[in-house]
Specification:
Layout lengths: L40 H9 L10 E7 L2 E9 L5 E6 L12 E2 L6 E7 L6 E7 L5 E4 L15 E2 L10 H10 L7 E5 L17 H15 L3 E4 L3 E2 L12 E5 L6 H13 L3 E6 L25 H4 E2 L4 E2 L6 H18 L3 E4 L2 H5 L21 H17 L4 E4 L21 E3 L1 H12 L9 H5 L1 H4 L5 E5 L11 H4 L4 H17 L3 E5 L24 H19 L13 E8 L4 E6 L8 E6 L5 E9 L6 E4 L17 E6 L4 E8 L3 E5 L1
Parallel strand pairs: 9-10, 9-20, 10-13, 13-16, 16-17, 17-18, 18-19, 19-20
Antiparallel strand pairs: 1-2, 2-5, 3-6, 4-5, 6-7, 6-8, 11-12, 14-15, 21-22, 22-23, 23-28, 24-27, 25-28, 26-27
Helix pairs in contact: 1-6, 3-4, 6-8, 13-14
Length: 662
């Protein structure tokens, strides 16, 4: 299906040469467009009101039979158009042959049935809009697009038999907020490739054969895919979407992507998709100036243009746009069985002054900086998703202190299930970058996240953003020689996995990638031939196993009852200890962190509750690449107060390491 014709050859009605499609799906072009509709009055009303959340069942191209004639019904919203034609390979891209009809109700919807059009046919809409401007647009509701750089939509209908019934029945438990969450963030084009060059991709089905057993072996509970929605520019990493209802054709058909999700589910692995309702690019075939006017974006560029990404912001005030976006989110849950969405760039949606200088934005009607329309949209989004799919999660990438991101909407919150804990990420990386000799001076930065850890349902992210643009790979953020770098990274991961909240780790971080992430090449899997890298990978496996098996690490991960500091009084030695607490005292864990490369023998820790008798994790274990010289085969303990159930433990602390005592 790949079309190498540059997009600018299709602008303003210029035909593509007919010999290019001599084997295409041609039809009898003497057949006019039939006046036909699948919209009901209620569809139109709810569409305009912003409450139609299944628009993907109405808009776009739909294969149907009318009066015994098979073909495709087309519909598109272009409220300021004066003429809309369907052009495609089936009519040699001739805009005079198949004109859609505007609905009589002034809804702005153009529609019609073209008999004979087959599945797999390329098409666009030629739209004559404001001041006679001609544009050629892909279908905003298209389910399948040409592989970039070609830009046409493809007529399609889904044909897939799901085999994930077992997962779908039990995912309420595995997606619950008291379940273990260890998320592996993946960029499909660069995780693994058949060849390291830029144009070599594994298909969705090939990725399934490679990724599913790997994620299962590593013990991650979920994968999060960076945007799979169709996008024209590889360098956007998928965050500049043009096809909000289509998985990218770079790796295969929509059914091939369904297969990937299905295989992950059959392996008991949940699937989260990055979803971008915050902005869209200005590519000629996309949503920008769709009918010659600001159809999907705000007309006022103080609200409608995003200066950071040179892109355009959805008009959340417009009911039709709100219906479009919530339908997009619902589409992936409904038809692709996904288990969660991570909503990108929520901060930019909430704040009118986001990345804008004074005078470059206008306050809302109450004089504040909140985008009231975006706030209302987000609340409706979350209410709709949790109403219709109560066993999934929505996750906000939100980097400010906006209150109540994960509070229910009925109590004034935005209604997300989780929020990325960006403050923890920044403070933690800042601390671990410091030479251990000086960490005693930065302990407050390390401990600050515990002041607010239960303000929201937090997910701890070490994402793709932390290993690009000169920030260095995770391994090289650690100070010291090679041993210290690996020891420091193992300690960081142990701290992350024992900190309250869900976990997210970007691909390659699990084995110590030594270069920044590059979307053009695969991860450096050859590093696994070296012991320290394969042993780091084993450390992540063990942490994932503990996360699942130890109830204290997950069942109260969003509750203030799940955490308690034990000792912060040894700043000079940079030793800290805390407890992760289960719903039953017998499940409690003691975590001790030694943040310097100095061995601490006969270290005293006072605890209350149950006796702690077994070391169940030691990041300095030889199997993880540590020295293996300092461990606690026997936990020495002394009863300090029998009535108070207080004990004093005597421990040996390995250098630059974390231990977990049960």
């Amino acid at each position: 299906m790949e079309d190498k014709t540059p997009d600018n050859e299709r602008q303003l009605g210029n035909p593509v040469s007919s010999d290019k499609y001599e084997k295409g799906n041609f039809i009898d072009t003497s057949q006019p467009v039939w006046n036909y509709s699948i919209f009901y009055d209620d569809d139109i009303t709810t569409f305009h009101n912003g409450t139609h959340y299944t628009l993907y069942k109405k808009f776009g191209s739909k294969r149907i039979t009318v009066l015994d004639k098979e073909g495709y019904y087309f519909s598109v919203w272009a409220p300021n158009a004066t003429k809309v034609a369907v052009i495609g390979e089936f009519n040699n891209w001739d805009p005079s042959l198949h004109l859609l009809q505007p609905r009589w109700d002034n809804s702005g919807i153009w529609e019609g049935f073209i008999p004979g059009v087959q599945k797999g046919s390329l098409y666009k809409y030629q739209i004559k809009g404001y001041k006679g401007l001609l544009t050629e647009k892909g279908d905003p509701f298209g389910n399948y697009w040409e592989k970039r750089p070609a830009t046409s939509t493809i007529t399609w209908e889904f044909d897939y038999a799901w085999e994930d019934e077992s997962w779908m029945k039990k995912r309420k438990v595995q997606n619950a907020l008291d379940a273990p969450w260890s998320v592996y963030e993946v960029h499909l084009a660069s995780w693994m490739r058949p060849e390291p060059n830029e144009e070599s991709y594994n298909s969705y089905k090939q990725i399934a054969k490679l990724l599913v057993p790997y994620v299962r072996k590593m013990g991650f509970t979920h994968v999060e895919f960076m945007p799979v929605m169709e996008h024209p520019f590889d360098g956007s990493w998928g965050y500049q979407c043009t096809g909000f209802f289509a998985p990218t054709s770079r790796f295969g058909t929509p059914e091939d992507f369904m297969y990937l999700v299905d295989q992950l589910h059959q392996a008991d692995i949940g699937v989260i998709l990055d979803w971008v309702p915050s902005h869209f690019p200005y590519d000629a075939h996309g949503l920008f100036m769709f009918d010659g006017t600001h159809t999907y974006e705000y007309a006022d560029m103080r609200k409608g243009f995003h200066p950071d990404w040179n892109s355009y912001i959805f008009n959340y005030k417009r009911g039709e746009v709100k219906s479009f976006l919530i339908s997009s989110a619902r589409f992936w849950f409904d038809l692709f069985h996904i288990d969660g969405i991570r909503v990108d760039a929520v901060s930019s949606m909430l704040k009118l002054d986001y990345s804008r200088e004074e005078g470059a934005w206008e306050p809302n009607e109450f004089g504040g900086n909140g985008n009231l329309e975006a706030i209302a949209f987000i609340k409706d989004l979350n209410e709709t998703i949790y109403r219709d799919f109560p066993d999934v999660q929505t996750i906000a990438e939100e980097a400010t202190d906006w209150p109540g991101i994960t509070n229910p909407t009925f109590s004034g919150g935005l209604g997300f299930g989780m929020k990325w804990m960006m403050g923890w990420m920044h403070d933690t990386l800042d601390y671990f970058k410091v030479d251990p000799l000086y960490r005693k001076e930065h302990q407050d930065k390390f401990t600050f996240s515990m002041v607010y850890y239960n303000d929201e349902n937090f997910m701890l992210p070490l994402s793709h953003d932390e290993v690009v643009h000169g920030k260095s790979p995770m391994l090289y953020k650690m100070p010291g020689d090679e041993w210290q770098k690996f020891a420091g990274l193992r300690t960081l991961y142990a701290y992350m996995w024992t900190h309250p909240g869900a976990k997210l780790l970007f691909m390659g971080n699990e084995f110590g990638q030594t270069t920044e992430w590059n979307y053009k090449t695969e991860l450096n899997w050859a590093l696994l031939q070296f012991d320290l890298h394969s042993q780091l990978q084993l450390c992540i496996q063990e942490l994932n196993r503990l996360l699942k098996e130890e109830k204290a690490l997950h069942e109260s991960q969003f509750s203030k009852n799940g955490f308690e500091w034990v000792d912060l009084d040894h700043r000079q030695e940079s030793v800290m200890s805390f407890m992760r607490k289960g719903k039953k005292m017998k499940d409690d864990l003691l975590i001790v962190l030694n943040m310097t490369p100095v061995i601490r023998e006969d270290w005293l820790v006072s605890v209350k509750g149950k006796k702690f008798t077994k070391e169940i994790f030691n990041s300095d274990d030889k199997k993880f690449g540590g020295t293996g010289n300092v461990f606690n085969s026997i936990i020495r303990q002394e009863v300090m107060d029998k009535t108070e159930k207080s004990y004093r433990l005597t421990l040996n602390l390995p250098p630059l390491a974390a231990i977990i005592i049960k």
